[in-house]
Amino acid sequence: MPVYALNPGYQGERMDRVENFHGNQIVYLGWDEHRMFCAAKAFPLPPSMPFAALIENIMPEAFGQHPEFKQINWDSAEWLLDGEPFKPQADVSLADQGVGHKSLIRFKTPELTGYQGAGV
Amino acid sequence: MAAKKLNIKDKYRLLTRDLDWEFSYEDPKQAFPYEEFEGIKITDWSKWEDPFRLTMDSYWKYQAEKEKKLYAIFDAFSQNNGHLNVTDSRYVNAVKLFLTGVSPLEYQAYQGFAHVGRQFSGVGARVACQMQSLDELRHVQTQIHAMSHYNKFFDGFQEFSHMHDRVWYLSVPRSFFCDARSAGPFEFMIAIGFSFEYVLTNLLFVPFMSGAAHNGDMATVTFGFSAQSDEARHMTLGLEVIKFLLEQHEDNVPIVQKWIDKWFWRGTRLLTIVAMMMDYMLPNKVMSWKEAWEVYFEEAGGALFKDLARYGIRMPKYAETIEKEKEHISHQAWWTFYTHGHAAGFHTWIPSDEELDWLSAQYPDTFDKYYRPMWELAKEQEAKGERFYTSGLPQLCQTCQIPMLFTEMDNPNQNSMRDYLYQGERYHFCSDGCCDIFKEEPEKYVQSWLPVHQIFQGNCGGPGVGEVLSDYYRMNVGVDNMDIKGSPDEVRWNKWKGVA
Amino acid sequence: MSKVYIALQDNDESRYIVEAIEESNPDATVIHQPAMIRIERENRLVIERAVVEEKMGREWDVQELHINLITLGGNVDEDDDQFVLEWKQ
Ligand SMILES: [Fe+2]
Ligand SMILES: [Fe+2]
Ligand SMILES: [Zn+2]
Q: DSSP letter at B483?
């Protein structure tokens, strides 16, 4: 049952349809086992943004406050896109490599274990 | 000859039976249109019994007495500048959180019970809901009165009802009650009457009130206990409701179980703010969240579910996850507020060294391993003059609307994240519990008003977060928010106390 | 077996009620906490009007209990003479 409602056929309004974001789509970014940031972060980004621009412009805004940020080796980072292993292509747009509205991009930095090695 | 005094059983029977009438020429289904769509089957409303057998005359009599006692204390509190007796200016932030996050729920409870009190065709249930509705209205009023005294001396109290409807973290309690109130009347009773009142309200009020008593806050102790005297009746109503539904028809059992599973999960997520209040916001600690959880949920709730086993009801789903999370959630929540201290309507701070040691002692299995390093980092940043306020906006859970701050119980370093595709759109959840709730009724939760997405859609003013805070939330930026260190609250407090 | 419990505000009236509870339920446990008194007992606890009246030295209506009540756990049954808390498992 999609909902228990008084009237049959009741449908809810989708509050976060991509059309509501003025040409952007929401992308979530999470740095695994780095709990200095309490949760993944949300960004409204143009679907045409190349992945290289995301790394260059959005990643510092998202995670640049972390003492380990400058040491990140983006070449050895391991990625998950919506839960599936993922190899980002630097020059391809988000949309063209399957990053959709409300996609979650997670990355692991195997050589960086967080502040005091504690996953922080 | 004096009239024979009725005993309470007779009085209650007369109130709840003889004042009702049969629908002889109108269709009862039209009079009570909400009673069937949830699938609950009631065969005999006359089996409903209020164990307190409270009638309206006694109700008014005792409520009036409670109010008289309460307002006498409020007067004494403000005449004696009671705010100066609290432990320190940090404590008052717990009261701000209560006024913005909890008191408006009392108002929602009032609205909810007034609504369901109209929708049941059984008169006993209607009378009980009506009394509870009046109680809840009394609770919000007395809480506002009590806390209005603090509003004269501290920042952050001035726009509590406006904030409740808009501020990002207050969408958590707000949407919890909106969810319950937009459900059918029976689900509302299981959600609020049973799950919330019977088990969880103890965890909300008793620690808050003992905390207030321990921190010199007479006003809060008094309104809290006065409200609790009604809560004991609400808890009893909650238990009666569930027994009544389970006894009426065996088909009700799986429906009730599903609601228990849902609302215990929703409730424990909601109580995360109480956990953080107890462990981090009270300068004088009463007991840890973990201990409160053990006394009021594991022990008291355990007894309750043993009692309900005879109807075929089991412990709520994910009870094992909840049991593990008691070691984590208060730390995760306070870290979230600390790092978002620029966007909160109250002050945040790094725990003192003694407090860090207290936390280590209370949480020997988790605190030093997972959480102390965070505070070490925060101290380091603060010492460099870079008090850590996180950039950007967090991802939120579609169901509970809490930032996705919870972690996996088999790897507490990793945030717990679930997602689900519904009709081509992706939705995100903090847990299996929240994901299950969505899957059961996606058409309800696609409507979640998620503050972060609303900001990006341009529905909360802006363009920057600063304008959202000051204009849309009506926070007094730089005064209500940020660290307690150097805040106007702290400066005034030190002046009153003669501290340099 | 599980415990039923009741918590009362710590004040002058409650003191007599607690004394009465201890007399009616000799093996109940009384726990003093900040501003409140919690009483627990395995399975069943009773408050008898006659005993409370004797302690208070005045008439006492069982429903007056509501004024000082903070919380309880167990199934309630109340009439003119007593207030009972009980688990039925
Ligand atoms: Fe209430
Ligand atoms: Fe209540
Ligand atoms: Zn959630």
A: B
